[in-house]
Amino acid sequence: MPTAPHAQNTDELYRALQENDRRPYGRTRTVTAEELVEAAEQFAEPRPLVHALLALQKAYNYGSEPRKSPVVFARVLTLFDEQPDVFDERLRHTLFWRFKWVAGALLALPEVPLASLRQWLTEMRDRYEKAGLGLQPYYGQAYRLAAHVGEDTDPAFELWAGRTRTELSDCEACEICERALYHLAAGDDERALRTWEPVLAGKESCQEEPARSVSYALLPLLRTGRTDRARELHLTGYRACRRNPAMSGEVGRHLEFCALTGNEARGLELLAENRALFDELDSPLDLVGFLTGVEVLLQRVELLGHGDLPAAGYAGRTWTVAGLRAEVRGRAADLAARFDARNGTTAHTDRHTARLDRAPLLDALELTLRARGLDDVAPAAAPAVAVAVPESLPELIARARKSEEQGHPDATACWARLRTLVAAPGYAHPDDPAVGPLVQLRADLLADEAGRVGEQDQFDKAAALWEEAASLYDEAGAPGDAALARACAVLPAAELPAERADGAEAKAAALTAAHAALVRLQEETPDLAPYQEARVLRLRASALGLRLQATRDEEHIAPVLAEVDLLLAFATRHDITGQISGAHLLRASTHALSGDLPTAVTEIDALLDRLKADGPAWHLPRTLGLRGRLRLGLQDARAAHEDLTEGLRLAADWPSDSVDTARLHGDLAQACMHLGRPDEALRHLSRSAELDLRHGSRTDAFCTYGNVAQLSLELGRVEDCIALLDSLLTEPDAAAGEMDDRLVAQLRLYRARALRAGEDLKAATAEFAALAAESAGWDDDPGSHAMIAAETAVLLAESGEFGRAREAADQALAAHARAPRYEQLSSCLRELARLQAQRQGAEGLADALAVLADAGRVADEARAAEYEARDRSLDSALAYEHGRVNAYAGEYETSLAALDRALTLVGAPGPDKDHAGEWAECVRLAAVVEGIYLERPVPALTRLDAAISHLTPLGHTEETEPLTSLAAQLRDEG
């Protein structure tokens, strides 16, 4: 199906060519370029065809289709030979530049004989000489051929590098990369890195650079001990080349970097993101570079014992690491051999082998905020703490049930092992009365699953599983277990209406009913074993505790404490240590909910003493975690940090899900923030999120990772933020739309802001625009749409697209009318007006003032609603912006009047810093307008001197400095 409209005239054709040039490289752009060549052939005038052919060659060149590039160029060259007058200076320059592209395309095809490559270079030299052009570009291509073949590289390098650059030489960045690669091939890492520095520092760049240089520099940086720089460049460099067929070799080198730095899990993630490259690449040279990087990664993963992990590979089948490695190994080795056969050397096979033989350079380098190992990406992640379970099936079943009765963390591993055994074909259940029938074991497994999904807040599923387990226990003749399962179903069943209810009263009613149901169930089941009855009592207390949490009603405190006393007395009488500890934890939590934090801490102190003396030891981490949270509430962040750190230390002895290690990390992050340790907080938040992911609490994990992204952005770690969000948004459930759409949108919003902070305005604008379009349909949340549309408007204005910016601002205003966002809208509109006036001057003044009029209406609405801005007054900020906008447009008298009004609205500052900066800036800009643009230095100096005299005694030194500097400038110029 055609992708480009049929051009009726050359103007339409040129517009279509320009539009296609804005598309990313890939099949859509290439197919459109092909169609535009067909369209250009209908015109008698040859120049449109030349433009269309050159655009098509560009699409082939950067779309990794080298076989087609020379054919297209041959047509252009024929046109040049036949009708040279068609080619103006720019087209002629492009023609001679593209000789290099053809040389590169032929180089990439092993079926092209070496003699043909040399013949083309001879043709290039002859053409350049005939046209009177310098030969440095020819010698550059000759050197590239020598380096590719692996022979005579030194003399070829000297012939090229010693010549003066010409207008047809490769850009500085590309030539720097070639020189650095020469030194790298000679084994001189330090010299290569010194040569690369202008490119790596961003001083020289082009379409391919610095991404190409970065990919080659990563390993030399590691070998020379510059690990932080390597990490930083990996993040920026990978983002610049990912999913780009023309940079598949660069992607391969990033995969290799991951494999050699202990980041195999990230490597597999990046491989999945670039899966399309397996089938999109038509360049054998690009393909062998990509496949070699893939093979290095897969080899490392398999050597670490994870060959059965899933891996993203060629379309049409499911791959494991081992299976894909075998496939890739054969293809890469074959391609390398084909190049060597063409070249008559062993260079490509040797390079391929050398990359595979490299040993890891670091055991572990933390590349991103998602510190994951291969165990974390396994379909069923292995527990961090290995638990030895009995080999004998009867012993395993007995151990699992005993551990469950005690609440021991080992129960999880035992049930997991039993689940695997029971699901295996040919499972034979022991004929042992002590074990019970198979149906009882199936009920046990259902009960374990119900508990796990309940912890993930999947209340409907948990309630159903508990009821199903109860039915199986009935069938097995285990009435006590059946009654306990039904009791366990009561709370998640009550959480469903409580979760959906609107208001605390409805939640309280549901939980009150749940408590009554538990009381009845206990009364109607007289033969419960002590551990079963203790669990029912714990559920009763928990129901009332949740009710108190929902209502914070003082009348609900005493009933909880009464239930806790019942539980504690019963557990003490029967020496059920886990429930004794649980009762004390419930009591402490009740005091905390009631606002009595000191009493709660006293309760926890006593419990900790008991746990250290009598156990159970696995309750210590949670208890220390609770005391840490209480101390945070008491504003003792240092003591909280100590408790939480100790809790994490002890938690390392137990499976992380059984002692809630994720929450300990999250709480410790909060303590770190209170102590002014944001980087440490970032690490703990990341670990908390990853543990939640491992345990299936994906929504909690994504929310926490959202906090990680926000904090990393606030800390200026922009590339960390982008890499994290790229990783999260490619998670299968996020990419497939299975996650909560608002949560994913929030992550995308953070990513868009990070892209903007990283000055990738094109990508940021595209993401903001997409989010604005999606959020327009959020009828239940117009405020979020107003905020997103406002940010989109500013970004579009920064890109100079003022028409689209105005449309986005209008969307924001419409949403704001339904859910006011006074400050965000005012700020957006002011910035939009400023940008338009700054870029367009007097021509843009009318539109800028129309935008400020909208900002004025927003300020009026805020005033009517008695809204108080958190930062600047909307009225004074608007007056200042009127001053600035009019100044940009050359309306200086109007500007000065607006600034005087702003000064009146702000008011002269006092000793506090609150508005001193805003007032001083208004004075400064007014003095600039008055003294410089209106050429009235005397009143301007009077204004400045009065402001300086006012600010100095108040101690506003920082605010005074720009005023003093401007006054000195005016006096010097006067």
Rg measurement, Å? 35 Å
Mean pLDDT: 93
Total strands: 2
Distance between the termini: 71 Å
Shape: globular
Q: Order of strands across the biggest sheet? A: 1-2
- Tally of DSSP helical segments: 47
Task: Provide the helix percentage.
Answer: over 70%
Low-confidence stretches: 380-384
Sheet bearing the most strands, described? 2 strands, antiparallel
Structural class by SSE content:
mainly alpha
**Into which percentage range does the β-strand content fall?**
under 5%
Short description:
With 974 residues, this protein is mostly helical.
Textual characterization of the structure:
This protein has 974 residues and is an all-alpha fold. The chain is 73% helix and 0% strand. The protein contains 47 helices and two strands. Strands 1-2 form a two-stranded antiparallel ribbon. Helix 1 packs parallel to helix 3 (47-62), helix 5 (89-107) packs parallel to helix 7 and helix 38 packs antiparallel against helix 39 (782-798). It is globular, with a radius of gyration of 35 Å. It starts with 9 loop residues before the first helix and ends with a helix.
Name the features.
mainly alpha, two-stranded antiparallel ribbon, single chain, 974 residues, globular, 0% strand
Could you give the topology of this structure?
Blueprint: H1 10-21, H2 27-40, H3 47-62, H4 69-82, H5 89-107, H6 114-130, H7 136-149, H8 153-161, H9 172-185, H10 189-200, H11 211-223, H12 227-241, H13 248-259, H14 264-273, H15 277-280, H16 284-303, E1 310-311, E2 319-320, H17 321-343, H18 347-357, H19 374-377, H20 393-406, H21 410-423, H22 438-455, H23 459-476, H24 479-500, H25 504-524, H26 530-551, H27 557-573, H28 577-593, H29 597-614, H30 620-633, H31 637-651, H32 661-674, H33 678-694, H34 698-714, H35 718-729, H36 732-735, H37 741-757, H38 761-775, H39 782-798, H40 802-818, H41 822-840, H42 845-864, H43 874-888, H44 892-906, H45 916-933, H46 937-951, H47 957-973
Antiparallel strand pairs: 1-2
